[in-house]
Write a structure and sequence with these properties.
The complex is a heterodimer of chains A (128) and B (201). With 128 residues, chain A is an alpha/beta fold. Chain A has one domain: Phosphotransferase system, mannose-type IIA component (Rossmann fold), CATH 3.40.50.510. Chain A contains five helices and four strands, in the order E-H-E-H-E-H-E-H-H. Chain A has a four-stranded parallel β-sheet with strand order 2-1-3-4, sandwiched between helices. Chain A is globular. Chain B is built from nine helices and no strands. Helices cover 72% and strands 0% of the residues of chain B. Chain B has a single domain, classed as Serine Threonine Protein Phosphatase 5, Tetratricopeptide repeat (Alpha Horseshoe). Chain B has 201 residues and is mainly alpha-helical. The termini of chain B are close together. The longest helix of chain B is centred in the last third of the chain and has 21 residues. The radius of gyration of chain B is 16 Å and the shape is globular. The chains are: A alpha/beta (128), B mainly alpha (201).
């Protein structure tokens, strides 16, 4: 099963998003990586590295990020783990996390997941 | 090299409040704090790197920065120092040409990591003019010190230039036109590094 890592500048946001996604798909494998080591806001290379390591399997890992340095720091983690199958997903964080959890729990591959997550960009929540 | 880096760390820490103030105006107010934290960690690490080649020292600095800065400057300066380190592999001394190669590699790293170029109100607006001036000086036969003086002067002009343009990268980009008139914090911290290197040659 593809593992999911949620990267945010905020520890609470990463944990909360992971919690929500886990609720939507109990079987999904999700790790939050938010905030700095002391819990303050920022992105931590170590936390992201550890989270990827925690959920990694041969099926690979999908990383979702909030913005800015979350993306750049994740890139550096991926470069440091250059023999692993890890893909950054360009999608809204919460909507993406929920869909990723549901999809990966159903066995969707990393490659298929990237395509599916595109739909979260224009998802509407208030129906006509 | 260790002494120069220690001096750079001290300079950044000394300017923490000013950098934070600049970042309060157009960013999220953490550049000074983040950079000071990062360079404090670098200072702790430097003694353990003392017997290594310049490449390894710079790489160590880069890795420390990405691990402790916490904001965008972490991956940006982290990559810059790591790429500079790769360009200085196995070297125990650096001449003008070596420094230019390291700076070029650092700039390449920032462009790659930040997906930015000159004119977007970033550290590149200090570093790119500095590199151009350095290369020009060296090519014209100036000694390293004179070429670096020209580089610092160009970086100073670059920092002034950032006041006149709009931010399109980072937190400041959310301000749009309101970012005009404000000096970029990243360009400022880059300038401080170059000034400190020059002062400690």
């Amino acid at each position: 099963m593809v593992g999911i890592v949620i990267v945010s500048h905020s520890q609470k946001l990463a944990e909360g998003t992971a919690e929500l996604a886990q609720m939507m798909a109990a079987k999904a494998v999700i790790a939050p990586a938010g905030g700095l080591d002391d819990g303050s806001t920022g992105t931590s290379f170590e936390k992201i590295y550890q989270a990827v390591d925690d959920v990694y399997s041969d099926d690979g890992v999908a990383v979702l990020m909030d913005m800015g340095s979350a993306v750049m720091t994740t890139e550096m983690v991926i470069e440091a783990m250059d023999d692993r199958k890890i893909q950054m997903m360009d999608c809204p964080l919460v909507e993406g996390a929920v869909l990723a959890a549901v999809e990966t729990a159903m066995g969707t591959t990393l490659e298929e997941l990237a395509e599916k997550l595109e739909t979260t960009r224009t998802m509407k929540k208030i129906m006509e | 090299m260790i002494e120069i880096l220690q001096a750079v760390a001290k300079r950044i820490e000394a300017e923490k409040d000013f950098l934070t103030q600049l970042d309060n105006e157009i960013g999220d107010g953490d550049h000074g704090i983040n950079m000071a934290r990062g360079f404090q960690a670098v200072e702790q690490k430097l003694p353990t790197l003392a017997d290594k080649d310049i490449g390894a020292i710079l790489k160590g600095v880069g890795m420390q920065l990405v691990s402790t800065v916490g904001g965008a400057s972490g991956p940006l300066y982290g990559t810059a120092f790591m790429k500079a380190g790769a360009a200085c592999k196995d070297k125990m001394e650096l001449d003008g040409a070596g420094f230019a190669a390291a700076l070029d590699a650092a700039i390449g790293g920032i462009k790659m990591r930040g997906k930015a170029h000159e004119g977007e109100k970033t550290m590149l607006d200090a570093l790119c003019p500095a590199y151009a001036a350095l290369q020009e000086g060296l090519a014209a036969g100036s000694d390293t010190k004179a070429a670096l003086e020209a580089a610092v002067a160009a970086a100073e002009k670059g920092v002034e230039y950032t006041k006149t343009i709009i931010a399109t990268k980072g937190r400041a980009s959310y301000l749009g036109e309101r970012s005009i008139g404000h000096q970029d914090p990243g360009a400022t911290s880059s300038l401080y590094m170059l000034q400190t290197i020059l002062a400690n040659l």
